[in-house]
Hints:
The complex is a heterodimer. Chain A is mostly helical. Chain A folds into two domains: 22-94 and 246-294, no CATH class; 98-242, MetI-like fold, CATH 1.10.3720. Chain A is built from 13 helices and no strands. Chain B is an alpha/beta fold. Chain B folds into five domains: 1-97 and 179-227, Rossmann fold (3-Layer(aba) Sandwich), CATH 3.40.50; 107-177, no CATH class; 250-331, no CATH class; 352-563, P-loop containing nucleotide triphosphate hydrolases (Rossmann fold, 3-Layer(aba) Sandwich), CATH 3.40.50; 587-668, no CATH class. An eight-stranded mixed beta sheet of chain B has the order 6-7-8-3-9-10-12-11, sandwiched between helices. In chain B, strands 18-19-20-15-21-22-24-23 form an eight-stranded mixed beta sheet, with helices on both faces. Chain B has a four-stranded antiparallel beta sheet with strand order 2-1-4-5, covered by helices on one side. In chain B, helix 5 packs across helix 6 (130-143), helix 9 packs across helix 23 and helix 17 (452-464) runs parallel beside helix 19 (498-509). Chain B is globular and about 75 Å long. At the A-B interface, helix 9 of A face helix 15, strand 18, helix 17, helix 19 and helix 20 of B.
Amino acid sequence: MSATDSPPLPAVPDAVAQRSPWGEVLHTLLRSPTFLTGLGILLFWVICALLGEHFVPYDPLDADIINTLAPPSADHWFGTDQLGRDVFSRVIVGSRDILTVAPLATILATIAGTALGLVIGYFRGIVDDIVSRVLEAFMAIPVVIIALLAIVALGTSKITVIVVIGLSFAPIIARTVRSAVLAERELDYVAAAKLRHEGALHTMFVEILPNVIPPILVETTVRLGYAIFAVATLSFMGFGIQPPSPDWGLSISSNYGMIGGGFWWTVLFDALAIASLVIGVNLVADGVHGAFND
Amino acid sequence: MTDPRQATNALELKDLSVAYRVGRRDRAVLRNLNLTIKAGEAYGLVGESGCGKSTVALSVVRYLPRNGSITGGSIALDGKDVMKLDAEALRRARADSVSMVYQDPGKALNPSLRIGRQLTEIFELAGTTGQAAEDKALAMLNRVRISDPASVMQRYPHQLSGGMQQRVAIAMALANDPSMLILDEPTTGLDATVEAEVLDLIGQLRRELSASILFISHNLAVVSNMCDRVGVLYAGMLVEEGSTKDVFNDPRHPYTVALLRCLPRGGQRKDQGRLDTIPGFLPGIGATIVGCAFAERCALATERCRAEPPPLYELGDGRLSRCHYHDKAQSLPRATPAEIPAVAPKRAPPVLQVEGLNKTYASHGRPLRAVKDVSVSLRPGETLGLVGESGSGKTTFARLLLGLVPPDEGGSIELDGKKLAPRLASRSEDQVKAVQIVFQNPDSALNRSHSIRHILSRALKRLGGLSGKALDTRLEELVRSVRLTDRHLAVKPRQLSGGLKQRVAIARAFAGDPRIVVCDEPTSALDVSVQAAILNLLADLQSKQDVSYIFISHDLGVVRYLSDKIAVLYLGRIMEFGPSEAVFSGPHHPYTEALLSAVPKLDRSESARIRLDGEIPSAANPPTGCVFHTRCPRKIGAICETQEPELSEAEPGHTIRCHIPFAELARLQKPKTMEPA
């Protein structure tokens, strides 16, 4: 064969083809109104959680017993609660605990779920049958019941909440990863790895894992929305974040008895905050899903 | 005035330009394409992938993808300007006068509707209702020669084989008695035997119907058999046109000349010289073309070619060529010298010895014998070609050798005289690296998340046992040996073309100096020019490294080029085994005879045609006696149905599994059966 047979890199005709798959996804994301709106909401709350205490007008924990249950006014935009604490400051700073606990729980769920999903998807057979049935049984138990049991056993703390939510979401992620791995393991590159006598760990984590990142990422963002909701629920029920934190779920729980008395502002703004954060995360998840599945 | 039906052309494209919008820029795919198909004519459009063949088909029915638009020119169907039709008129034109058949019938049919419903629907749309429409549907299935049409009406698409599905798709296309039938690679996914049947059917229907045909294919031989005239498309331009016979026998454009030279023809073999190739690449879509589009890849190109775009020269007899030097086109020098290093024949002991290999799967509780009692042997530096229809057990046999699936108890695989463990995990490192594979589809075989450097380094580390400096040196050698360059190392597989990806896959297989490389249809996804380069590469590597190949392909011309020995498989059994020349030139097993006869020939030489009826039977329920008796054109009687013939030696080293004695086979096949194209 002559030198002419050594082909040059093909002249890639356009910028789109030159972008890496990840660049492609990023490009789509940055043009998706859904994603950008969600990201805006999310960033707003992240900034509140990080810096909120420096710019809120009042200390969220400072009680003002002369000024309890004041309706929204120029002094107190969202009014004050039964201890006279400024609701606006509490809502802003209240994002901090939920935005620590929910993401950490989601990360734990993702790591545990991915590892589990890779193993059962890769080995299949009896391992898969047994583990999958156990996971299904686990998923049938409501998070609240698991939380209750864990808290009785371990006592309330943020760590407990993270572990409880993380472990109860892990099976869902494991199932997603498993189905992606089942498709991947049939591809010839996995056979090629076997023909190099690669170990199972290498094949799972170096060969297969990078190719199943997209569904994992989508599932993770979706789970984050649910995790926020779960943290708020647990706090509302008293199993989650503990006083004196200005946490939203906790505030609703301690104030919802006031609604009957017409003091709606003590509950409404915390509820709206939870809703907006969940919506924001779900919009991001929608955008990510769209970008990977276009 | 003449009869208007006579006067109008079935299809007329004038200066048609089509562009796809990619990343805010319009990129030209078709450039001022002029093309006329007369009423009743079959016109073939050929060219490599990416030259715009399918875009032509989609433009005709204005069915371009959303980012595609017709940027200039006109399309006239039966004299009507398609561009000027409003939505309703366009719908009517698509319903009444033009039909399309696509490459993959499995995707063209609705999976959740019965065949009968789908076919009847078309007649209902045309105004017939109830029983009358159903009767017409049934008649249509009869017309495409489907056996037992009444039962096919009741079935779902997935219950039909690929060939049957394509017949149904053709029946649907013909239902409205179109004046124009567009066939876009209609036989590409099918086995050669099924392809031959479908092509026969299209040929017969042509005589019965008045439809003009636009036949799009990358397979030159298929087009040569089906079409009156042929156009060669390159970078969205017609570079040559003329009657099929003229273009293929006397090409006048260097591109056509080069394409034809890429095919292994007339029984060419690896020891008789290398195939010619076409250097370089097709210009990307939307590339700015100054001068002749082919100039960069053409050894005849001069300054004039690079500066001045050639017009379509008229050469008389309706022949056109877009080349300034069309009279010299055939003097195109070879891009790849034919010379090959002389290889001294060796008498080494066999590298591979397979004895009585069996593989039985369980299928719905019944045993499915995917490979039955297969014994072969192979010397170093030799190639064993495995041929047979899909479902004949070729790939299973390859996977057994590789250890990817364990064989049944009893048989043995010996490598260099040492027994190979049935399971890959229990084979030694040396044995593992000694048997490697080049997969059919490089997209699946190369990990899309890893760079080429990672893929090859890992193989060198695991198979070659190298690390550090030694690995880098060897990597460079390896990359050069498959004619890639350093620049290819940094990229991911998706940034490479199909041919380059396959080179990476070959490099990976050779990383540990293998003794045997299984090549499982390594070129079936590639264009002919790229296929030629890959076949040359495999032949070169073999002559240098003394490696043996197990070469699986449905393309008999390709198998013949590379193989020293051939095993013909049917339902997991070897029907014929012997030296390549003996198997191809015959006398051969009736099944081999039928396979060879099914291959479309470029020169349209139609000799005694043998067609296999029906489909390959299920391996879960093989016929009694000789498994081939249900389809055998040379069946001699009851003995074929009751007693399975032995694999008996016809000549030294050439065995055939048939009740007909060898001398009798020789007599029956006397007017020597044809060579593959």
